[in-house]
Amino acid sequence: MTLQQLKYVIEVANRGSMNEAARRLFISQPSLSNAIRDLEEEFQIEIFERTNKGISLSKEGTEFLGYARQVVEQAELLETRYGNKKPSPQHFSVSTQHYAFAVNAFVNLVRKYGQEEYELALRETKTYEIIQDVKTLRSEIGILYMNEFNEKVINKLLKDAGLQFNSLFTAKPHIFISIKNPLAKQSVVTIEQLENYPYLSFDQGEYNSFHFSEEILSTLSRKKSITVNDRATLFNLLIGLNGYTISTGVLSADLNGNEIIPVPLESKESINVGWISHKNISLSKLAISYVEALHEAIAEN
Fold it and tell me: Residue 156 — φ and ψ, nearest 5°?
């Protein structure tokens, strides 16, 4: 085993493609494949599963990647400290449901810890894909919510993937609406009062199950409903159509302006928002710092 082989594994995992990794490493694809196969033979494990559809980490490979990242990170610390070597670009990825506080935390992370070079990723995506991203280590951390309705399904997926859920906060449901909405001045609204307003929700693609919905009370029938793919579009429709969506009530004026406000929704439901990660893989320094930034962003709201 060499440090270079470990770096090869990390790059292939980051790119999800042997060809793309070889291009970025400035080596031939056969040389890269042979180096990784040599490593697999040395440890008698299959790090990557190879199919007609491409390459992906195996279960053993996922665990191996966690250790490889730690070894490479420690080696780079030594080289930087004693060899006057320029630090290599930082790598960190997070996949999240559409939460403004997650973006705020990411912004603060980059401002505080970003070096001259970094390769970071923030993916606001679908619930099922968040779990898959963390399972395959495409992202180190995922952010989603659980409640009484979806927790059995979500917990089973997390258990099968070797992931754990870490609670950030529990909130009562709120609606997000335009400040010009007739309901904006109320101290609390009911489901019945929302009947004639367009209901906005995030599309979950092929896994469009009620259990993967980003909004609680997803099984209720609505006279008017619109699905969207991104937060900017949803907020534009909240304003343009006097629509509403259901969320935690945690909103960032810095990112979203003052045109959208949260109003408490009369409901016995609760929303437990948290972050997921691999059970048996230590978090990188950037991941640990991001979790700290999450807590700080939530405390500010």
Answer: -65, -45
pTM, two decimal places: 0.75
| Strand segments (E) across 78-182 | 90-96, 118-124, 141-146, 163-171, 174-178
Which burial class, exposed, middle or buried, applies to 8 when counting CB atoms under 10 A from its CB (0-12, 13-18, 19+)? Answer: buried
φ, ψ of residue 42 in degrees (nearest 5): -60, -40
pLDDT in tens, 265-276: 999 999 999 999
Instruction: Please count the other Cβ atoms lying within 10 Å of the Cβ belonging to residue 222.
Output: 14
In tens, the pLDDT along 233-283 reads 998 999 999 999 999 888 765 555 678 889 999 999 999 999 999 987 888
Whole-number Å distance between alpha carbons of 7 and 79:
15
| C-alpha distances out from residue 261 to 89, 168, 248, 255, 256, Å | 39, 22, 12, 13, 10
